Amino acid sequence: MALPYELLIGLRYTRAKRRNHFISFISLISMLGIALGVTALIVVLSVMNGFQTELRSRILAVVSHVQISGQSGEMSGWELVAAESSKVPRVMAAAPFVQAQGMLSFGQSVRGAMVRGVLPDYEDKVADFRPHIKEGSLDSLTPDAFNVVLGSELARSLGVFVGDKVTVIAPQGVVTPAGVMPRLKTFTVSGIFEVGMFEYDSGLALIRMEDAQKLYRMDDRVSGVRLKIDDLFKARVVVNQLASQLSVPAYISDWTMSHANFFRAVQIEKNMMFIILSLIVAVAAFNIVSTLVMAVTDKQADIAILRTLGASPRSIMAVFMVQGALIGFIGLGLGVVGGVTLALNVDVVVPFIERVLGTELMSKEVYYISSLPSELQWGDVITITAVSFVLSLVATIYPSWRASRVNPAEALRYE
User: Fold this and answer.
1) Which of 93, 191, 329, 359 could be bridged to 149 by S-S, CB 3.0 to 4.6 A?
2) Are 403 and 303 in contact (CB under 8 A)?
């Protein structure tokens, strides 16, 4: 099937050698500008996706996907709650916990912390503490051993190391003839963890659940049950199912509710970066306007001849829209290839740049990560491609309309 002549002429104008080389230069700049903008968009959004995933994984290393808590802060018969929860689709594991505020004292240093009582075997099924243990072991939390595993910042602020003994002070008081005295218990530091989130590294202490029940006088009660599900993005669905199936009254929350501020901030920042970097593409796309305006001026005689041969204004408009769209398409293609390539090889490109510049862009001591994370999402690539192509098409409308309005008699008067 023969191609429409508008398409053939538009393609010919794009690749033909012009007498005015400045138009070709502007076309090249427009292509490179679109390519650079698209590349920057894909790489930046991929890196932000990587940071979002890294942040989520670090938070979920210490926070469960779904948490069921007693209405009064305490819950009896956690085994029944765990059994009923496990019957809900997508729930993979359940673990009890005891959680309360406490003060840790060592020498002259005193720090407040969240004390969490866990069962290591159960905790492994709902959280990922073990990969973050820097010293000692989570298995050291045995019944009646009164051992404690501290966050790295908390241990640093107290000045303690594995083997030191710290005093845990519970807010529940003991009535004595001298008045109400706080409950004190000496624990041995048996491990130090570092998840890379200051909130937890500086304010979380893990002890054995039975030891926590004794310290806080909870008998066989717990604070609640933590759940792990097979798809963390379905947490809200699981929460709704649990609310209708649990036989005991309880508060049910998921990770998006307990840390909504973190993820909302990251998502807002990602959206703003998309808008800001889209301006680069918009500026490059509207360079097509100047390219086509000059091309229309240069081709006025050709337009007039086409009109006298019977070409309609709509056909003339289509010729120059094809030319502008091809410029945008080539730039877009280069940008997508470059952006995807860079996004998939950030772990190679960044170390190379660091070696060339002789500096460290992401210091582990500052950012708690050793490499720049990147996660390419094809949904972002498709969105960027669609937005960029639409901007390129919009930029061709005005110059093409001007070309369709050229008067053949005026254009050929001085030819």
Assistant:
1) 191
2) yes
